[in-house]
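Hi R.,

Here are the chain sequences for the assembly we discussed:
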Amino acid sequence: LTIPGSHCQAYATSMGTRQIHTRAVQMTFDEDRGYVHVVHVPGSNVSKADAVELVEAMEKITDGRKCPQLVDVSKCKSVSFEARAYFSSPSIRAKYTALALVGGSPVGNMLANFGLVAFSKTDGPPIKMFTSERDALEWLTRFIVR
Amino acid sequence: MTAHGGHDPRQAEIHRLILDLARDKGDESAPVEAPGDETNQVLSTLRALAEELRMHRSSFSKANERLSELSEVMNALLSLDYERKAQVGDENDILDGMAAGLNMLGEELSATTVSRAYVSGIIESMTDMLLVVTPEGIIQTANQAAVALLRYERDELTGACADLVFPGFSAEALIEQGGLRDDERLCKRKDGSTVTVALSTSILDLGKERPEGLVCVARDLTATRRLDEERWQLREAVQRQSILLHELSTPLIPISDKVLAVPLIGPFDEERASQMTATLLEGITDRRTEIAILDITGVRRIDAPAITGLVRAVRAIRLIGVEAVMTGIRSGVAKALCEMEIDLGGLRTFGSLQQGIVYAMNRTRASARPPGPT
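And here is the predicted structure of the full complex:
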């Protein structure tokens, strides 16, 4: 699970999960439940390069399978304009089936809100913002294909 | 205890107030449990409250600073300055959330709108004068070039009537006619002097019901006029020189009433041969010449087309009944004539102009003499 030229560290864990750490996030693919869980590293400032790395990691961890995503930005500090534009581009949005954004903190909520605005400009899979992971996962479950 | 050893009721009230304050802050642990009497307990609680107050004051001061910074960023956004960023701290509190939001708002606005600094930079770097005038004819904006050209302070221009600068200016009329382009007109400066400018106006339409005003761009024509004048003078000088050169290139020297000499000097090409023929024919006709001497002593090099032109000149002279004589044929020219196998058809040639003149004078004298007895 290595990504050439990136800062990713990959781990194969037990219980049907796989993990990748990038500069900005810790990503876990729950193979049993069929979704990707992305948690931003505390204090991370996400640049375009980080965003590209994140998407590459997502494709790697799922072996290119389209899955729902649960992204927790509660500890994230900033996401650059270029990174937001990249995440919201139709080609990137086509890589997953649903996106649950967890704000969970004042900065996180703000980032998630701006993310929603950016995503609303293009067509793509369903996207919703939550303040808790539990609610987010509950919503995301409906998009999981066994 | 009072000074007289009695119980002071105010002391009891102080104790009660302090303990109530400690309870009011909603802290489970308050009031502070301390060994000893009630006074000790109150003192400990007071110390804890003092510490808490210090912390509150400190965080209040920090919050004030951060709010002040956020306020400055908001003001910058309102002024269309999108470069200003707020510091997002590590507390991840509501102020950090606001800071992150303002920063992203600035980025979004920067990507979707043009900043004031960018627009101002364009306007101020223009070399031509720019005035933005309301439909009522009031100057709203004046750039640095306008200030420099009109010699007004910027404050004096903004808010003034455009008529001050362009006498008879009517914004309404110009809006009605859809603006104008490169209209030469006089522009009045502060000191009363005038300058000619090329004025172009376009309607400022911001998508509202009525036009916002007129954008007037005026180009100072002083330098252009001076350049035109210089160019005109230069052209005249070149023309004068050209005429002079033309005259000098084919000088007609009357040797007598009937003899004309044409000394040719310098490079001789087909064009010059053609010029010479025209000048010579004109001179011969005017003077009733009988013999024309073409002296080519001063011609060092001659090419084939020029030789053809020269021969054509000789034939033309003969056609109008004048005898042509050629003098001063140099070796190079003679060689060229031979190589081209040109038949000069009985053309009289002499080595020098002097010999040619002697021949011509004798010939004309002889023709003038009345026929003698045979």
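The longest strand of chain A covers residues 96-102. Chain A touches chain B at residues 43, 74-75, 77-81, 84, 105-111, 113-114, 117 (CB under 8 Å).

Let me know if anything looks off.

Best,
T.
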